[in-house]
Amino acid sequence: MAPHSESPHREDDVSMQSSRESQRETSPEAFRPHPRVPRSQAEIALIRVKNRRREYLERNPAYFKSPDHEFADPLLYDELVRQFQTPAEREADGKAKGYGRVLEGSLLRGEARLAKLTESTVGAEGENGTSGPTEASSSTSSATTNPTLRERIALEADIVALSTPPSNKEEATDRWQEFLRARFVRGGDEDFDYEKVDESEDYDTLARQDEEDAWFEDEDPDWVSTDDDEDRRDAEDRNRSRPERVLQGQTGIQDY
Fold this sequence. Notes:
The chain is an all-alpha fold and 256 residues long.
C-alpha cells in the first residue's frame, strides 16, 4: 500500500484561508465602530431618575449638612468628619444633635468597630486553618454574604475603603459628600421622599439641554449668508450713502 501523502492543493487552501482571515482582521471594517445597542425603556427610565436626583442635589447643597447622615456609615463619618473637627466644632455639633443622638452615634460606632474587628479575626483564623466560634461571627458573615443596600453603596463609592487617608479637612469633606451623593442617587437614603424628585419633570435639566443642543445642530439658521450676499449688501450700502449729483447749468429746454 502506498503511503498516504498530503495534497499540495490542500496546503494551498489552508494558506489562502489564513491569508483571508488576516486580511479580514486588518481591513477597515475590523476597526470601524459599531453602533451602540439601544437601551431598553427600563434603562432609560432609571437614567432619567438618577439624573433628576443629581439635579436635586445641585439645587439643594444643604442636603449634605444634615446631621442625620452620620448614621449612614458611622465609621466613615468618624474618619472623614469627626477627626477633622476642632474641639469647639465638635462641642457645637453635639449641642445641635442633642444628647440622645450623640449617644446613639457613639453606640453605633462601637458596634461597627467590634463587627469589623470580629470579621478581621475570623478571616485571620480561616487563613491559619483554625476555626473560631461560629456563633460570634454569624452576624458578620451574614452581613458579608448578604450586603445591605447601604453597604453596596459604600463599596461602589470608592471612598469607604480608604487606601490613603485624606490629607486635609477639605479633601475629607469632598470624600464624605461623594459618598452621600452616591448613596442618594442609588436610593439609599431611607428617610428621604424620593417620589417628589423622581416624578418631577422640573429636574430634567440635562434632558432639556440635550434637546436644545440637538435642535441647534439640526436647525439651518436663516442669518447664515454667503460671501456673495455680503458683497452685494456692501455695494447697496455704499450706493445709498453716496450723495446724489445735481446737474447745474441746464434748463432742460432745447434752443434751436
